[in-house]
Amino acid sequence: MDRKERRKYIAHLVNERKIETQEELLQLLTDAGISTTQATISRDIHNLNIVKASDGTGHTYYVQLQKDPAHNYDRLYLGIRNNVQSVETVQFMNVVKTEPNSSYATILAGMFDELDVPEVIGTLAGNDTLLLISKTPEDAQTIHQLISDHMK
To answer: What pTM does this model have?
Structure first.
């Protein structure tokens, strides 16, 4: 199965089921005879505009957002609301902590990169920590406020 077909199947699964983890998605793909890796699934999720959403009962699951440029900031705000636990500004940088062991920091970094947010000149992401680098402390404060405004 090629990448296009795999992504189409992932989109179908996400739209038909309440999938809570990448491991669950990987198992569903494996059960369907599709061999892939967790890293590939992470890239597919990002490419397909899939984010985690809360169902209001404390459970989160993947949903696919419209791939419309007008909604890209909405996608960022949803990602912040559902996954960011804290943000701290240090001079011209923001250190963003996401859900532990979620790999969401890399997804969030990709969103900032994709949006080309003018106050962010670079991102560096690990498993659950994201570093947003700005040119000035004032730009960093603007990003801190943006994140704070959209956290739970």
So the answer is: 0.59
pLDDT for position 52: 79
What is the percentage of the chain residues whose pLDDT exceeds 90? 59
Calculate mean pLDDT across residues 41-61.
80
Structure tokens at 60: 């989160």
DSSP assignment string, 12-25? HHHHHS----HHHH
Average pLDDT of the residues in 113-129: 91
Do 108 and 84 touch, CB atoms closer than 8 A? yes
Polymer length of the chain: 152
Mean pLDDT of the chain: 89
Residue 33 — left, alpha, or beta (φ > 0 → left; ψ -120 to 50 → alpha)?
left
Distance CA(70)–CA(25), nearest Å, equals 28
Task: Give ∠ CA 46-58-25 in degrees, rounded to 5.
Answer: 35
Which long-range contacts does 129-134 make (Cβ < 8 Å, 24+ apart)?
A: 129/95, 129/96, 129/97, 129/98, 129/105, 130/95, 130/96, 130/98, 130/105, 130/106, 131/93, 131/94, 131/95, 131/96, 132/93, 132/94, 132/96, 133/92, 133/93, 134/92, 134/93, 134/94
